[in-house]
Amino acid sequence: MNAMLAPVTTSIGKKALMGVTGVLLVLFVLGHMTGNLLIFAGRDAINEYARFLHEAGHGALIWVARLGLLALFVTHLALAILLKQENRKARPVRYVVEDTIQASWASRNMLLTGLVIFAFLAYHLAHFTLGLTDPDTFKGTYEPRGKENLEDVYQMVVRGFQQPLVASIYMLAQLTLCAHLWHGAGSWMQSLGLNRGKLRGASKLMGPVIALVVLAGNSLIVLACLLGIVNV
Amino acid sequence: MNFTLHVWRQKDRKSPGKMEAIAAKNILPDMSFLEMLDIVNDDLLAQGKAPISFDHDCREGICGSCSLVINGRPHGPTRGTTCQTYMRHFRDGEAIYIEPWRAKAFPVVCDLVTDRSAFDRIIQSGGYVSVNTGGAVDGNTLPIGRETAEKAMDTSACIGCGACVAACKNASAMLFVAAKVTHLGLLPQGQPERDSRALSMVTTMDKEGFGNCTNQYECEAVCPKEISADWIARLNRDYIAAAGSPGE
User: Which of A52, A161, B93, B223 has a Cα-to-Cα distance from A149 of 20 to 30 A?
Assistant: First the structure.
């Protein structure tokens, strides 16, 4: 058998690749959230952080990260669709009565929540990276005391989330992401064969814990702006 | 007790099937589910109708022949096989839905009987140990620790009924294959072929048209032999190690 092709040709290989791409995306989500929480440290803190991201490695690092993330997303999504198709084909005649004993709602709707997250991602990039949906609040610069000009990510985020419609879209996306992580952020351990003995309990908890941490962290930013706790 | 059965009736492999309502009358609470079907079939025969076809053999929970998805659950409402499910577990007058295992890899032969030979082909592809026959070896030639022996025993309890496939949202056979690969892979006799066994049994499983595991563990919840989905993690581990090893 060709070991190089196993990740895309066999059931366990595909699931393992799903797990690896998934856990890397989870790490990104956690990093993204942690960085963005700097908004509570004030205007300068988050703007300095944004500049660091853009300038690290002479501006090359951000492109490495972007291309890496794109590859992860595309692989994860393509495999999800392929696996779903195979799974549908594996049961051509559905049950008239189907019971579910312990499979969570989250675990049964991974493709749905994943696709919603993907759609949100397109909007999120159009909003904060490309400045297409809300050009009035997109970046702009300001001059912090005694320093050179900084792009003002802070006001872009705050003004963005001050709009109830925008805030609702983000909140809805966070709830969807929470559902997706509820299953996915722990399930990868089983797919990669790491569950054994006490680790099974840990991986069962890991999904919900990460899901709730991400929901809390990200929602805090949106709600703080919407409610005027963080203001320009 | 009286029940209204809604039974999947399908003439043969090629005909389309459909649910049919059949009355089950004068059933005693301590009859097994299969005995109830025997009574119903006697009634059907007396009326000159075709009896319901279903698989059964030992009727004591050890052979793995009986199947049936009862009200959406493989082997019915209690943990254990259909033959060990009793009518006292149902309410008098209840409507009971009876369907065959539903999986592409388990085609319906007639009514509730499915062709489960896909499991046999998976076993043929690696579910064995190759040994030279000859005089029987002494009982304790190969010492095996108690814990390992217990785990091997737990996984060898699989009777190959296919309830795991029937319960899985994706009709995956991972619990079955995990049990078989682990049962041999834990013991010294199974070591020489450990890698090739995992690879070929998984390849055959995929080829037979079973779905992919999505870690929902519906399989372990219905397994009449209470085989844990932890063994699926071990199968994943074994398979990934084997696929990555230079010898393969």
Answer: A161
pTM of the model: 0.93
Looking at the predicted complex, does its ipTM rise above 0.85?
Answer: yes
Q: What span, in angstroms and rounded, lies between the C-alpha atoms of B169 and B217? A: 10
Among A141-155, B35-49, B117-131, B143-157, name the one with the lowest average pLDDT.
A141-155
**In this structure, which amino acid lies at residue B141?**
T
Same domain membership, residue B167 and residue B58: no
Which of B97, B209, B236 has its CB closest to that of A12? B236
Q: pLDDT by residue (tens digit) across B60-108?
A: 999 999 999 999 999 999 989 999 999 999 999 999 999 999 999 999 9
Based on the fold, state whether residues B231 and B125 are members of the same structural domain. Answer: yes
Average pLDDT, chain B: 95
B62 falls within a domain: yes
State CA B20 to chain mean position distance. 25
Amino acid at A21: T
Are B244 and A3 in contact (CB < 8 Å)? yes
> Is B136 among the domain residues?
no
Q: Residue window 207-236, chain B: list those with CB within 8 Å of chain A.
A: 209-218, 221-222, 229-230, 232-236
Q: Could you give the C-alpha distances from B217 to A77, B168, B227, B228, in angstroms and in order?
A: 23, 8, 11, 9
Question: What is the rounded average pLDDT of the residues A80-99?
Answer: 96
One domain for residues B226 and B191: yes
Burial class from Cβ neighbours inside 10 Å (0-12, 13-18, 19+) for residue A53 reads middle
Total domain count, chain B: 2
The structural domains of chain A, ordered by start, are: 11-96+103-226 (1.20.1300.10)
Query: Has residue B240 been placed in a domain?
Result: yes
φ, ψ (nearest 5 deg) of residue B146: -60, -45
**Domain of B59, in residue numbers:** 3-109
Q: Which residues of A22-41 are buried (b: 16+ CB within 10 A; e: fewer)?
A: bbbbbeebbeebeebebbee
- Please report which helix (H) or strand (E) contains residue A76, including its range: helix A61-89
DSSP secondary structure letter of residue B99: E
Asked if A20 has any chain B CB less than 8 Å from its own CB, the reply is no
Which of A4, A5, A11 is the best residue to mutate to test the B interface, defined by the most B CB atoms within 10 Å of its own CB?
A: A11
